[in-house]
Structure formats: structure tokens, C-alpha cells
């Protein structure tokens, strides 16, 4: 199929848009992309001009995605991942990379700091990280390693627990929590727990009357909470860095040990490459 160049926006605007949507913040996107916040704002404006629609409502300090942004976000993520895989397929490998897959929030808040530490060590190797919240994509056979959420029983996969899940209401310190909205997100599987299940299983009703604010993903709900936009159902081990740094704090109320956790997995019977074995050992330590 022939695609005219003028039918596509500049590729960098899509990269910037994807980062802003995942983080829910121009500032955090700028940090990830190693550019200034002004550069991020410029690319987003460029994409909005090209599309002819607004993607964000800029009501400081809040950054609210529009319906158009939510619709575009998932398509852009799939497109960028497809492009990355295509480029990798034709690039001559010097050292076979490890393909690692994880959900957006796990990648952003737990994996990224550890992958940076791994990259600085003596056992560093190339890593291709795929970020998706869709279970079928997470378990694609092309992935060497995958971080999965569940009870540890993953048919056809070897699994090792990384951390157990404890869910608690969390928000940015200093924010007004009295009527702050509960940040919601799509529940991608039967094991996923949202506010309704949390209220039911904890019998805690103090927050039940709060309004709801939908987010495109769990990662985005955390990003919105970091901005002070609402209350997130936070996984304590997953967000331990944010709690330690003081950017998120647990609110008074119960903590729900779900009996689930996040597991490092690989296909049963697959012989792991040396690089995959080293990365497994590092993450599971």
C-alpha cells in the first residue's frame, strides 16, 4: 500500500505525544526524552495543528487529554511498536537483544529504574522493551521475558515472583483530597482490581461518594495523581520510589493484599540466551 508523506504527521510529534500520554505530564515526558518542556509543548502544538483538533486541555496545573487524544493514544502506541519491530528486523545485530514486555505502569515506575541500573553494570546487554496493557500482546511468542500480573499460575510459562501487590488509596501530598476524583482506568483482565472491587473487599466507603475521572491507562492514572489531579488506587511495591521521594503518599484507610503479584516469566521449555539469563537474574534478585 502506498502512503503519501503528507498524509502522516512528523514522526517525532507522535513520539512526543505517546510520552505525554503515558506520563500525563509535559515535564515528565521532557525528562524521558531528554529535551526541554518547551520542546515537548512545541511538538504537541505541531501535532494538534496538523490534526486540526485539540489533544489536551491546558488548565494549569492540570493537563487533561481530550477524547481525541484518548482515541489516538492506543493507535499511536501500536504503530510505534510495529515500526520499532520492523526496524529491528532489518538492523544487523551485534549482540542479540533481549525482548522484554511489560504493562505500561510496570515499565514506567518499576522496570525503567532497574533497567538503567542494569545498563550501567558489567552484564549489560541490548534490550528491546515492549509496553502494552493488552494480555495477548504481553504473551506474544516473540518476547524472551515478560512481566505478568496474576497469581503465578501461567500455563506454559516459567514464573518467578518480583513483588506482591498491596493496593491503597494514594495521592500527591498537599493536594485537597476532600472531593478529589477517583482516577479510574480500563480493567484489562478478570484479575484487575478497580475502585469498586477495592471498596467491596475492604468495606471502606469513605471514598465511595467521590466523583470518578476516567484515564486511558493505569499508568496515566498514576501520572494524573502525581500532578495532583485525583486519587489513584496505588500498588505500594510498584510505586515505592514515588512514595520514598514524597511525590505520592498513602491516604488513611485500609490496605488490600490482593493475593496477586507481578511475575517475571518466560515460555516453558525455551532455552534462554545468555543475555536473557543475565537480565532474568538481575531483575529477580
TrEMBL record:
Gene3D superfamilies assigned to the protein according to its UniProt record, in alphabetical order: Periplasmic binding protein-like II, Winged helix-like DNA-binding domain superfamily/Winged helix DNA-binding domain
Alphabetically ordered keywords of this record: DNA-binding, Transcription, Transcription regulation
Superkingdom as given in the UniProt entry: Bacteria
GO terms of molecular function: DNA-binding transcription factor activity; sequence-specific DNA binding
GO BP terms, alphabetized: DNA-templated transcription
UniProt keyword Transcription, yes or no: yes
Pfam families assigned to the protein according to its UniProt record, in alphabetical order: HTH_1, LysR_substrate
Sequence similarity: Belongs to the LysR transcriptional regulatory family.
Name listed for the protein in its UniProt record: LysR family transcriptional regulator
Amino acid at each position: 500500500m502506498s502512503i503519501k508523506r503528507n498524509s502522516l504527521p512528523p514522526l517525532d510529534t507522535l513520539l512526543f505525544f505517546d510520552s505525554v500520554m503515558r506520563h500525563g505530564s509535559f515535564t515528565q515526558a521532557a525528562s524521558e526524552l531528554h529535551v526541554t518542556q518547551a520542546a515537548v509543548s512545541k511538538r504537541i502544538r505541531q501535532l494538534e495543528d496538523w490534526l486540526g483538533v485539540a489533544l489536551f486541555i491546558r488548565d494549569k496545573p492540570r493537563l487533561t487529554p481530550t477524547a481525541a487524544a484518548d482515541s489516538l493514544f492506543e493507535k499511536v502506541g501500536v504503530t510505534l511498536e510495529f515500526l520499532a519491530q520492523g526496524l529491528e528486523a532489518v538492523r544487523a545485530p551485534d549482540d542479540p537483544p533481549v525482548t522484554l514486555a511489560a504493562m505500561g505502569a510496570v515499565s514506567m515506575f518499576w522496570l525503567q529504574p532497574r533497567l538503567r541500573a542494569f545498563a550501567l553494570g558489567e552484564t549489560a546487554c541490548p534490550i528491546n522493551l515492549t509496553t502494552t496493557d493488552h494480555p495477548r500482546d504481553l504473551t506474544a511468542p516473540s518476547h524472551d521475558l515478560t512481566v505478568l500480573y496474576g497469581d503465578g499460575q501461567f500455563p506454559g510459562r516459567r514464573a518467578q515472583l518480583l513483588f506482591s501487590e498491596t493496593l491503597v488509596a494514594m495521592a500527591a501530598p498537599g493536594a485537597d483530597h476532600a472531593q478529589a476524583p477517583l482516577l479510574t482506568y480500563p480493567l484489562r483482565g478478570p484479575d484487575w482490581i478497580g475502585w469498586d472491587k477495592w471498596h467491596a473487599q475492604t468495606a471502606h466507603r469513605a471514598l465511595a461518594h467521590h466523583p470518578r475521572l476516567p484515564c486511558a491507562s493505569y499508568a496515566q492514572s498514576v501520572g494524573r495523581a502525581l500532578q495532583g489531579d485525583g486519587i489513584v488506587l496505588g500498588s505500594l511495591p510498584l510505586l515505592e520510589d514515588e512514595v520514598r521521594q514524597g511525590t505520592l503518599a498513602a491516604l488513611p484507610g485500609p490496605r488490600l493484599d490482593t493475593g496477586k503479584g507481578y511475575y517475571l516469566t518466560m515460555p516453558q521449555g525455551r532455552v534462554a540466551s545468555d543475555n536473557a539469563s543475565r537480565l532474568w537474574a538481575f531483575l529477580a534478585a
